[in-house]
Amino acid sequence: MHTPPAVSRRSTPTIRLDSFPLFESLPPDVLSHIERHATLISGKQTRLLFLRGDPENFIGVVLQGNAYHTLQEPDGHEVIIDSSGPGDIVGESALLHPGRRTCTAQLSRDCRLLLLHRQHFHPLQAEPLLMARVQEQLCKRLQRVSNFVETVCLYRLEARLARHLLMEIDQRGRAGPGGPILPMTVNQTVLAAMLNASRPRLNAQLKQWQRAGLIQLSRHALQVCDPSRLQEIARQN
């Protein structure tokens, strides 16, 4: 069983919890309870938050960066099945029906996260608005995992990559003169794990699309030059 890092003193987060939709308009005493009893940790301190099979005895509130939810294949290959970003709770099922972790959670190096243990759950569980939002977050996570399983099982890498890019552009993209632009916030190793592919195969696919004029790839961004063609690829299995 993995034990999260122990920190001798608590640190007050510089980011206000009520700036995130999950915590917006909650009673001040609930927010102060979290800040008073939570421990601030970072991806620089630890990359592993919990392991599959660990007891669900704490939650994490992501302030910055990402927590990746992973499974390990028999050959040791890790697959990222979902991620939690700023404002999300990691391990939210511990607030609803605690059991054992169903996946492993790893932190990005730039992640900052508030760790809150089970003995401090009651004020959160007694707040109906927060618990309704937690249930909504869990339902959305289950839908994303279901979509991931469908994509990995039914689509080739080319279509998986196209579907992923279209979803990311819809959520975080911006308009550009030559087509929508997507900030590249993860490296190719992480992206390959999200698509259940090897990094060399992913890199080869991106280079092929770049040579064909479908995308333009830079260090920090990806521009889709032909969105309609990308949508066609996404529909191919």
Overview of this structure, please?
- The protein folds into two domains: 138 residues, Jelly Rolls (Sandwich); 79 residues, Arc Repressor Mutant, subunit A (Orthogonal Bundle), CATH 1.10.10.
- The chain contains seven helices and eleven strands.
- The chain has a four-stranded antiparallel beta sheet with strand order 1-8-3-6, with helices on one face. Strands 2-7-4-5 form a four-stranded antiparallel beta sheet.
- α4 packs across α7 and α5 packs across α6.
- It starts with 27 loop residues before the first helix and ends with a helix.
- The mean pLDDT is 91.
Brief account:
The protein has helices at residues 28-37, 122-125, 128-154, 157-172, 188-194, 199-211, 227-234; strands at residues 39-42, 48-50, 58-64, 67-72, 78-84, 89-90, 104-107, 112-117, 181-183, 215-217, 221-224. The strands form three sheets. A four-stranded antiparallel beta sheet has the order 1-8-3-6, covered by helices on one side.
Please give the share of residues in helix.
Answer: 25-40%
Shape: globular
Supply Rg: 19 Å
Largest beta sheet, briefly? 4 strands, antiparallel
Instruction: Calculate the mean pLDDT score and round it.
Output: 91
Question: Which blocks of ≥5 consecutive residues have pLDDT under 50?
Answer: none
What is the third-level CATH name, the topology of the largest domain? Jelly Rolls
- The SS-based structural class is alpha+beta
- Order of adjacent strands in the largest pleated sheet: 1-8-3-6
Q: Please name the fourth-level CATH homologous superfamily of the largest domain.
A: Jelly Rolls
Multimerization state: single chain
Order of helices and strands: HEEEEEEEEHHHEHHEEH
Top-tier CATH class of the largest domain: Mainly Beta
Give the termini distance in whole angstroms.
Answer: 39 Å
Beta content comes to 15-25%
Helical segment count: 7
Keywords: DNA-binding, Transcription, Transcription regulation
Organism: Chromobacterium sinusclupearum
Pfam families: cNMP_binding (PF00027), HTH_Crp_2 (PF13545)
GO molecular function: DNA binding; DNA-binding transcription factor activity
